[in-house]
Amino acid sequence: MEARIKRIKAQLHDASYKLTPQREATVRVLLENEKDHLSAEEVFLRVKNLAPDTGLATVYRTLELLTELRVVDKINFGDGVSRYDLRKEGAKHFHHHLVCLECGSVEEIQEDLLEDVEKIIEDRWHFMIKDHRLTFQGICADCKKKTKK
Q1: Binding site membership: which residues?
Q2: Which CATH class is domain 1-89?
Q3: pTM
Q4: What is the pLDDT of residues 75-103, one digit of tens each?
Q5: Above pLDDT 70, what percent of the chain?
Q6: CA-CA to 114 of 20 to 30 Å: which in 7, 45, 48, 131?
Q7: How far, in Å, are 2, 76, 107 from residue 100 at the CA level?
Q8: How far does Cα 35 stand from its chain's mean position?
Q9: Cα–Cα distance between 91 and 71 in angstroms, integer?
Q10: Which residues are part of a known binding site for Zn(2+)?
């Protein structure tokens, strides 16, 4: 974790920002909860344990800055809540998600499933793709099993 924080600190520095204690607390919360897709409010509640003097507005600003620097991705699973997902280091693209409409579980797919689609779009429409997002909404295996019973 410390090595990742150092690299994020370098990213901030390269963009003329500092890793303040409040920003570091926010980054630590994101790293510690990497699989959870936390909302800003959830990040804030956890940050308060590490840096009690941090306000909600500071957490929002930090998350927006980290989004701008592509350290995190801001995502919405259709529930009206923005969530923050730590971008995998070295990832060319945002990873994909499977969202269960029954239980709300979210599963991540790290494979880039759209390479062929990107090639077609670039060739046919001469569109230079920088990133893409793909979210499948459906029923997870556990909920399907419960429905069959």
Answers
A1: 100, 103, 115, 132, 140, 143
A2: mainly alpha
A3: 0.76
A4: 888 788 899 988 877 666 677 889 898 99
A5: 97
A6: 7
A7: 33, 14, 9
A8: 9
A9: 11
A10: 100, 103, 140, 143
Please tell me the number of Cα atoms within 13 Å of 10 on its side-chain side: 6
**What pLDDT score does 17 carry?**
96
pLDDT of residue 108: 83
Domain boundaries, the chain: 1-89, 91-149
Could you tell me the CA-to-CA distances from 143 to 25, 97, 134, 135, 149 in Å, in that order?
36, 17, 21, 18, 10
Binding residues for Fe cation: 115, 132
- Looking at domain 91-149, does it have CATH number 3.30.1490.190? yes
CB-hemisphere CA count at 13 Å for 25? 20
